[in-house]
Amino acid sequence: MNNDSAKTRQSTALTRNMNSSMKQQSSPAAIDGRTKSIKRKASSDKETPQKRKRVSENGEEPSQKRKRSLDLHLQETESTSSSVDTGRGSLSEGCIGMGGVKRKADDVEEPIRKRKRSPDLMTINKETEEDLTSSVEACRVLFEDKYTQEKQLGEGGCGSVFAGYRKADHLPVAIKHVPNDKQFCKQTDENGNHLSVEVAMMLKLRSAGHSAPVSMLDWYDLDEELILVLERPVPAVDLYEYIEANRGSLQEKEAMIILKQLLDATIKLHEEHIFHRDIKVENILIETGTDVPRVRLIDFGLSCFFKKRSLYSAFYGTTAHVPPEWYSRGTYRAGPTTVWQLGVVLFDMLHSYSFETKQFLDDQLKISTDLSNDCQDFLQFCLTKDPEQRPTLEQLQCHPWLR
């Protein structure tokens, strides 16, 4: 057998070895709606709504009185689109390490050739590790040559985000580091490359020209982690901080301006068959450089592509905002869930305490009667317990409160 044949056998053995390794390093087990394996709080006397708190995304409570909403990141059991059209516009880097490339199966029968001794598997692994290390280091050099990383902006269940800037023109950027074990969903592009779902979403949105989601400028697959370089609007704060800066709640008129932009943005996402799955005040940026606040969506790490009637049983997102149908039926859909999440965001903007689905279902949370009748009606529409009776995103656009 000639050298080409030997290399083919080596590649096949290596691919199987790597695939075996990947299976062993599986994501956390999915929570299936049928088994209801989320640990729920035992029913007790009705609780008084607590002052707004932000629970850290890793589940640990920070020393401050505010807590960031808890994200639940789990492996999905439903199959999503196996491929993604990322558009023709390529990013300037998009450096993919060897660990992120799908290899073609060795299924072509070769002519019989003179047998040669195959190299030792340890030798193959050593050579591959050296190639992989070289590729990863090359990607890291590209990143460090182009960007400067500064202070940490935040840390959550999917990784850490740092401020930074592009060296060529000092453009402000956000640099997101996502460890491999936090990349729960993968997509496959038209070239057969395995992509993080967040990269796939950003490429799709970039090709469609949407302005509400922050743009991805570059991405680097460094094998042990993924680095995303994102647009960083300045000045801007997340909606949670924006609410806190306004004494814990917003005026109805300002909340309507923000909600209307958010509604338009989610409709455009759904037109591209993108289900964000974790819309909340912490994942919404407010640009504050103009008289009218501008809404930007961030963190697509738990998103997925969906079909019109796609049904999900494994829950991804924030536990406090689980749609009621997941508790009652063990399943949820993109449209009704997004409407529910818009209602949660509006509730958080207009009340001094945070929304929690279980408390709302147990009548421990009430919509304020100080709001206008149209606003109360809009909130009741979004937070309708039966998903079949809940309005669509397009129906919300026609509601009198938004006119």
Automatic annotation (TrEMBL):
It comes from the Eukaryota. This is Serine/threonine-protein kinase. It comes from Scomber scombrus. Its EC number is 2.7.11.1. Residues 147-402 form the Protein kinase domain. GO terms for molecular function: ATP binding; protein serine kinase activity; protein serine/threonine kinase activity. It is an enzyme of class 2 (transferase). InterPro entries: Kinase-like_dom_sf, PIM1/2/3, PIM_Ser/Thr_kinase, Prot_kinase_dom, Ser/Thr_kinase_AS. The active site is at D278 (proton acceptor).
